Amino acid sequence: MDIDLARTFLAVVQHGSFKHAAGGLHCTQSTVTARIQHLERLLGRTLFVRNRAGATPTADGHRFQPYAERFLHGWREAQQALGLPSRLHGTLRVAIDANLASDIGPAVGAGLLQALPNWAIEVRDENEPDADIRLGYGLVAAPGRTALAQFRDPLILVATTPRTAVTWDPDYRAIDWGHQFRERYARHYPFDEVPQLHLPAARWSLETLVSLGGAAYFPERWCTPHLTAGTLHRVDGAAQFDIRVAAVANTVNADWLDAASQILKALFASLGDFAHTEN
Description:
By secondary structure, the protein is an alpha/beta fold.
């Protein structure tokens, strides 16, 4: 399979029609049709159902999609690697959990760029298992991996009005801080009610809470300015949940490990008094 077949397949999936895919690829619709037919012959499967509304992937099309995406991604990586200046050793891919990307992503990229001047740094806000370095909640150094740095991030329950902890708060806003938090929260608050509003673990969710009112769990270091200003209040008697943020390398033998570990430990230590660095 050549790269044009994968690119054309993904364009049809994205645009939902052969016509619009042709426009995105800057080729004719007949070229798109010929490429898809050739790909279907190679695979021995029908990949799309075509009708007046456009083109919809079949079950086989959906199964093939992640492989096409990885194929195209690998091609782009190869182009990037071959296009690097000779002074650079290669590209270091860093995947940061989306819950952390807006928080520490810029500092991670800048820190690694400073610590590793002979490497190109590529930071992504996604969960990419095969990235060189991964940052996220609850990551562990399994065999073949290296723990670079970690810290405990205390989550506290805050509210827009002073209050004490209750068994169930109808104004509670659910924030998804990952499986560590969900398991501990469920053990501490074993009720069946479902919150009316669910928000992502992002800084704008904190501002949404301030605007809408209610209560939710957030990192204490995020809440400090609001607690000082009186726009948020710590809920008296509410449980605190410490979750672990870790940086893990997908290797145990690379010449950038020590430098990456040192810069990430320094970054984690600089996050404030509430981010407790662990060795």
